[in-house]
User: What shape does this take?
Amino acid sequence: MSVTTQVPKDFDAENADNFEDIEKQFAVKAVQQMATYWAILEKVPGSKLRLTKMDDDIFEHLKKDFPEFDPAVPIDEDEMKSKTGKDRWRTFMMAYDKKIDDYNFGTLLRASPKTEYGEKETIFVPRMQFYAVEIARNRAGLNDWIYEEAEKERQKAKGSSSA
Assistant: This one.
């Protein structure tokens, strides 16, 4: 996937003129991030991956603020985006203002750790929600299947090329 549109570093959404173009730029950046994350998961088991320098803190904070969260269970988008859900997540995310770059930037998250990204399997969330959920999934080994499937494909390709 080759995408060349970039969101300028000095971009100011409040004073921007063409909102449709801006939305497209944000969508392109979210898709680029999604493709990059998937490519990394194909090369490194999620259980061995660190997404930020603060993974341990984020994981402990998630467990404290969301003790009911089970990374193996598909996310209920309606619950997450309800008034109560938004309030809880907003409080969680604000702890990372000035600590995590683009902590509130829109990002694509798989609703379930058992599926690939797809139109019906993907939720648009702020980056901190993505980090919290994916760090928990990685710690639980729930994304390792992606590496294992890619490894099978690599072995199959290696076997057919040496035949």
In short: The chain has six helices and two strands. Helices lie at 19-43, 55-65, 77-80, 83-94, 127-139, 144-161. The CA atoms of residues 60 and 136 lie 10 Å apart. The two ends are 30 Å apart (CA to CA).
